[in-house]
Design brief:
Elements lengths: L1 E14 L2 E6 L2 E7 L6 H13 L1 E4 L5 E4 L6 E6 L21 H17 L3 E4 L6 E16 L2
Parallel strand pairs: 3-6, 6-7
Antiparallel strand pairs: 1-2, 1-3, 1-8, 4-5
Length: 146
C-alpha cells in the first residue's frame, strides 16, 4: 500500500464537472493498493496517517497531528502509484491490486480513518477524477509498507 499525503489548505475532487468530495484544512491522500495488500496493512497505514505530526504548533514546529488541528481528509484511489516504468516508456500496472480487491481495501481504509474521528471525503473509485488542491507548505510525505 502506498499513500502520497499532501498537507492542504483545501482540496476537492470532481467527476464529470461535479464536486464529489471537498475538504478544508487537512490531507489530500492519494492511495494506491498493491498486489498482496490486506486489511492489517490498511489498519497500520490508517493508524500512522492519523497520528502523523506534520502540522505546525505555535512555535512553527511540525508537532501536531490532523486530530490536533481538527483537520479533514480527502482520500482518492490512485492505482498509478504502482506504475512500473523500468522497462520501456509505457508504464506497467501489474503490481497494482485487481480492481475488486483494490476497491474493497480503499473503502476499508476510508472507514478506518473515519472511525478515528476524522471527517473523510472520497473520490469515486475507478472514475476519471479531477483533483484541485491548495498545497500548504508545500508539505508532501510518501508512506508505504507501514
Amino acid at each position: 500500500m502506498k499513500a502520497v499525503v499532501q498537507r492542504v489548505t483545501r482540496a476537492s475532487v470532481s467527476v464529470d464537472g461535479e464536486i464529489v468530495g471537498k475538504i478544508g484544512k487537512g490531507y489530500l491522500v492519494l492511495l494506491g493498493v498493491g498486489e498482496g495488500d490486506d486489511k492489517p496493512e490498511c489498519d497500520r497505514l490508517a493508524a500512522k496517517l492519523v497520528k502523523l505530526r506534520i502540522f505546525e504548533d505555535c512555535n512553527g514546529k511540525t508537532n501536531l497531528s490532523i486530530c490536533d488541528v481538527g483537520g479533514e481528509m480527502l482520500i482518492v484511489s490512485q492505482f498509478t502509484l504502482y506504475a512500473d516504468c523500468s522497462h520501456g516508456n509505457r508504464p506497467s500496472f501489474t503490481n497494482a491490486a485487481k480492481p475488486d480487491v483494490a476497491n474493497e481495501l480503499y473503502e476499508y481504509f476510508c472507514k478506518k480513518v473515519s472511525e478515528a474521528g476524522i471527517n473523510v471525503q472520497k473520490g469515486i473509485f475507478g472514475a476519471d477524477m479531477k483533483v484541485d488542491l491548495l498545497n500548504d507548505g508545500p508539505f508532501t510525505v510518501i508512506l508505504e509498507n507501514i
